[in-house]
Amino acid sequence: MQLNDLAKHSKINVGVKQSTKAIKADRALTVFIAEDADKILVQKVIDLAQEKLVEIVYVNSMKELGRACNIDVGAATAVIEK
User: Fold this and answer.
1) How far apart are CA 39 and CA 1, in angstroms?
2) Where is each Ribosomal protein eL8/eL30/eS12/Gadd45 domain found (predicted)?
3) What's the CA gap between 56 and 29, in Å, rounded?
4) 3-class secondary-structure state, position 50
5) Which fold has domain 3-81?
6) How far apart are CA 57 and CA 48, in angstroms?
7) In angstroms, rounded to a whole number, what is the distance separating the alpha carbons of residues 20 and 28?
8) What is the residue extent of each domain of the chain?
9) pLDDT surpassing 70 at residue 1
């Protein structure tokens, strides 16, 4: 899955807390992680996604991920729901 696929989906969750909830509830199809996000913050999401076998896509920056989610601020993580 690509970053431009993110904007096409109506069911997305933005942010570490919302992404974590979606992954734990087995609703996550793909998780997007900004490479410039705080590693300590996103490592829990990465570990959980790997445990649940959710596809992980890395994005260059939080600003780029936020723009793809149609928000005016950067985003560390985002999830496309099933």
Assistant:
1) 22
2) 4-79
3) 9
4) helix
5) 60s Ribosomal Protein L30; Chain: A; (3.30.1330)
6) 14
7) 9
8) 3-81
9) no
